[in-house]
Amino acid sequence: MAVLSLIVLAGLWLLTTVSANKTPRPPWPEPIDVVELLLPPVISRNETGACTAAVNPRGTGCIGQVFNEFQSGDFTPDGDHVVVNVEFIGASSAPDPASIYSGEQVILVKTDGTNFSNGDPWKCISCGISASNAQSLDPQKDYPHVFRSGTKVLWGHNILVCGNILVSSDKCKPENTYIYPLYWPISADGSGPGGVPRELRLHPDDEHIGWSSFTSAGGQHAYFGRLQFNPSPSSGDTLAPRYDLVDVSLLMEPNGLAPIMANGNELELHDQAITVGELRGFSGSGDEITYIGSPREANNIDVFAVHLITGAVRRLTSHPEYTDPLGWSYDNGWFVAMDTRGTDRQMWMSGMRMIPPVIDLITVTAASSTRNNGLRRFFQPILIDCYGDRGDYFGQQINAGGNGSNGAINDPNWNGRADPAFSYDGTKIVYWQALVTSPSCGGANPLKCPESTAEGGRRYRAMLAHLKRRKPTKPAPVFKVPKNIPWAIPFPPGASVPPQYILPTGNYTLKGKSSGIAHATLIANPSTGDFKTISVSYKNYSDDNGDHIISGFESVTSTKIPGENPWMNHLDWSSDLKQTGVVNATKITSPGGFQMSIDAMVNIFSANGTLTTTIDGAVYRQPANGT
Ligand SMILES: *[C@@H]1O[C@H](CO)[C@@H](O)[C@H](O)[C@H]1NC(C)=O
Ligand SMILES: *[C@@H]1O[C@H](CO)[C@@H](O)[C@H](O)[C@H]1NC(C)=O
Ligand SMILES: *[C@@H]1O[C@H](CO)[C@@H](O)[C@H](O)[C@H]1NC(C)=O
Ligand SMILES: *[C@@H]1O[C@H](CO)[C@@H](O)[C@H](O)[C@H]1NC(C)=O
Ligand SMILES: *[C@@H]1O[C@H](CO)[C@@H](O)[C@H](O)[C@H]1NC(C)=O
Ligand SMILES: *[C@@H]1O[C@H](CO)[C@@H](O)[C@H](O)[C@H]1NC(C)=O
Ligand SMILES: *[C@@H]1O[C@H](CO)[C@@H](O)[C@H](O)[C@H]1NC(C)=O
What we know:
Layout: H1 2-21, E1 32-36, E2 71-75, E3 81-88, E4 103-110, E5 122-124, E6 145-146, E7 152-155, E8 158-161, E9 178-183, E10 198-202, E11 208-214, E12 220-230, E13 242-250, E14 260-263, E15 266-269, E16 278-282, E17 288-292, E18 303-307, E19 313-315, E20 323-328, E21 334-339, H2 347-350, H3 360-369, E22 380-385, E23 396-397, E24 414-416, E25 421-422, E26 428-435, E27 460-467, E28 489-490, E29 506-511, E30 515-524, E31 531-542, E32 548-559, E33 568-581, E34 585-589, E35 594-599, E36 606-608, E37 611-615, E38 618-620
Parallel strand pairs: 9-13
Antiparallel strand pairs: 1-27, 2-3, 3-4, 4-5, 6-7, 7-8, 8-9, 10-11, 11-12, 12-13, 13-28, 14-15, 16-17, 17-18, 18-19, 20-21, 21-22, 22-23, 24-26, 25-26, 26-27, 29-30, 30-31, 31-32, 32-33, 33-34, 33-35, 34-37, 35-36, 37-38
């Protein structure tokens, strides 16, 4: 025992010192096979009884052509199943036994080519559960995740529990399955409606959980807490047996560093600032929280990790394109991220590297919103080792090996979605995609809508990647979560979010780490107190020993229209930047500037004028309006 833990400790020490002092060389690309998983049969109509015995002889449900609520999630511990959220349609009415395959349900899908004992390659685990076993079921049923025990599933704002039985086992039946809602007490006496968590992610210890939650002002904070079963709640408006979110921490440092702070008339950049903009999950061992954080480079949205105890921050991605959902391997060695890299979706604004993120104080929401065109995503799954992007290593696209034709595994019209996941042994990855669909194509949109080649004309698909050269690995030991996260802010019921550092308006200088200087002018909007205009001029500015030397001027003004929804962004942008060094690049707006409007909840690009980035002759232009 002692010897074993010494070995484990030595291993951890090695990993820590390697990452601190000498990051290993990036891995070579590896061979990956991708296949599509079988899903329930598809029907095109949604009337009662449309899911006939001819379509599904076993009477175990049908799904529709459009994805609506579809989402795939984690593998079960054996690696032979993945959890998937579906919407069953066309069920016949009770007392037909097939009537239970109706509406939004969570199913397991086989990944080993075999079938469940019912003869199907899938099994519904939430269907047919009696009302008494599922009291106060919460309508939010997204982001399905399997607990490491294999006996429970996180299903939106609910937890599905099969006692001590694996959910993948035949013994897990509707009679012994319970679904409990989650409740996040936020009022001091625990009364009333709870807080509204979104995109919940399980910690590997099966006890803790992380989530994000929108503010009413168009912002978002992230939280970490513990799941506590409450069999007979006496307060709060969910009075059925439920899981409470307790011992909650707000993932923010009290009086902590901000990414940009003033020191007299100088601006200082703080790479160690903890800026959990949206929580994305945990490392394989659970020692780090992953999140989308404040940009390190202008208009470049990346994923970061912060250590649960030390608060040390690591930047995981640095490619100029946009990164968002990710899944971590259980052995801690790898992650798979959904990323727009390779599509050139964002390069027009983010392609010039090493611009300090000063205008981002205004542009960050707009810059992260242009990644989508409505429901159209530009994500593909990228496999990256645990040290992240570095040098010219930007991971490996998992589904690169197709011929690009309609329906191929790399057909760009099939867009990656949240969340990708690894199998426990590290040899498989599951992710899902949706086919671009009207109004993100067709009609006024210049992109023609593609025909679906998937079964039954289905416009969504779950994909299984085999990392065929890999040997199975063991999950890393699960990190022991401390009672309190030392750097975070305890957030008991009744707590409120403390004020955060506000960079005062004014004129500043920012010294390049290697050379040059930037002058920045920050002007407030007198009615909102937010920044209205940020202008920065660069002179021979470099943070990386002259690899990227920036000169020129950039200015962005944000207009808030009183009474308009807080997610709406109107920017008036003017750029004339030039870069020399390892590349020759420019970032230039047209005469009269570039005006952009985008609602962060709708993601329809609309602009007048142009903003264009050119890198060594490659020209990157903004998307056409509406696309
Ligand atoms: C199917 O019909 C039900 C009931 O009218 C409706 O709630 C649901 O949104 C429909 N689903 C699809 C995929 O059209
Ligand atoms: C599993 O089910 C599928 C779909 O119903 C069927 O096509 C296949 O033959 C079955 N496989 C086995 C091994 O029984
Ligand atoms: C692409 O691959 C598909 C099979 O995956 C094949 O049917 C098709 O002919 C190929 N197209 C081209 C252009 O090679
Ligand atoms: C800031 O600089 C601008 C010129 O860039 C100047 O017009 C303005 O007066 C300065 N403001 C302060 C407070 O020094
Ligand atoms: C500009 O910066 C580069 C390196 O970043 C340096 O070598 C050069 O001397 C600087 N030029 C001036 C005029 O400061
Ligand atoms: C950048 O442009 C200059 C001047 O045309 C040229 O000498 C230099 O080689 C270019 N650098 C790169 C990286 O292409
Ligand atoms: C573009 O200009 C038109 C005509 O002036 C205006 O109606 C529209 O709001 C502008 N769009 C943006 C994004 O500024």
